[in-house]
Amino acid sequence: MGTHGISSNELKSVFTHLSEHGYAVIEDVLSEDEIRHYRGLAEELFERERGQPFEPEDGPELPEDADMEAYLKESYQISEAEQARLMRRIRHSRAQNQDTPWPVPPSAVVKNFLHLPTLFDYDQSQRIWNLVNKAPDFGKLIEHPVVLSLARGILGDDCVLADCSATSIGPHTDEGGAWHVDVPLGQLPEPLPDFPLTIQNAWMLDAFTTTNGATQIVPDSHRTRRKPVWGEQQQDGKMLTGPAGSVAIWLSNTWHRSGPNATDNPRRAILCYYSRSWIKPFTDYTSIAPEIVQTFSPELRYLLGYSASAPVRG
């Protein structure tokens, strides 16, 4: 299954390492021109959304809001302004859903149903959600033949995109993120499934180094069928380093986190998150403007959820 300048033997070796150890890195997949192009698109979006953050409408306050606020404060390193913005968006979405409550506490609500921070590490780090709607060229990374062949090899040929976002780990964010597994595994009881439900990859817009916030993983942790304890440190983590233009790939049941960034510059990446076809995607991309969707290939449209969701029946 050789593709895009990578030999069949090399790709098979990557697939084997990914399956057995839960991660892999392929260096120099993107050309210098592609790196500059995608980095420029991301920089423009980061600057725009930091300068003009989305200001949601609000909805009615309810007594259970205090529990949600406490959960957000405990789970994420966010500023008071970001927490207030998140709560407005949660209340507004709740009002749109007829003020329907969740039957479980905030910590048990699947992350697909929640709004999550766009600014974290107390506003030092940033994430751009709904990326392909804001900059459609990133769709080319979603259907990139190298990563897509690996995703399909792990998840099946009918796998879909669960999410695509841009992330910037800010300078001097020295703690790093919390160790975790990805949606929907956080809500599943242990032992976790003995096969991967989702797969994550990070396109490196900047070099990932040992000092600038490279993704860290615990090799072979997917075999434990357990979840890491939130906030607990791991002594056997491995940094996924590589030059800009490389791609890091890991099974989402492999324990992972963003590393601490001790440098003066941000560490930026594009995250493409794939799931088995029967897993609820993290983001609904079928709301993208039709004039944008019409420019996408049939393959990309399928990955985004077109012809991959239930019809309105009856």
Q: What would you say this structure looks like, in words?
A:
The chain has helices at 8-21, 32-51, 65-75, 80-96, 131-134, 139-142, 145-155, 290-293, 298-303; strands at residues 23-26, 119-120, 125-128, 160-169, 198-204, 215-217, 238-239, 247-251, 256-258, 267-275. The chain has 314 residues and is an alpha+beta fold. The protein has two domains: 8-53 and 123-303, q2cbj1_9rhob like domain (Jelly Rolls, Sandwich), CATH 2.60.120; 56-117, no CATH class. The strands form two sheets. A seven-stranded antiparallel sheet has the order 1-8-5-10-4-3-2, with helices on one face. Helix 1 packs across helix 7. The longest helix is centred in the N-terminal third of the chain and has 20 residues, at 32-51. The chain is globular, with a radius of gyration of 19 Å. The model has no long low-confidence stretch (mean pLDDT 94).
CA radius of gyration:
19 Å
Strand content: 15-25%
Sequence of strands across the biggest β-sheet:
1-8-5-10-4-3-2
* Portion in helices: 25-40%
Name the CATH homologous superfamily of the largest domain. q2cbj1_9rhob like domain
**Beta strands, count:** 10
The low-confidence parts are: none
Biggest sheet overview: 7 strands, antiparallel
Quickly count the domains. Answer: 2
What do the pLDDT scores average to?
A: 94
**SSE order:** HEHHHEEHHHEEEEEEEHH
CATH class of the largest domain: Mainly Beta
Structural class: alpha+beta
CATH architecture of the largest domain: Sandwich
CATH topology of the largest domain: Jelly Rolls
Q: How many individual helices?
A: 9
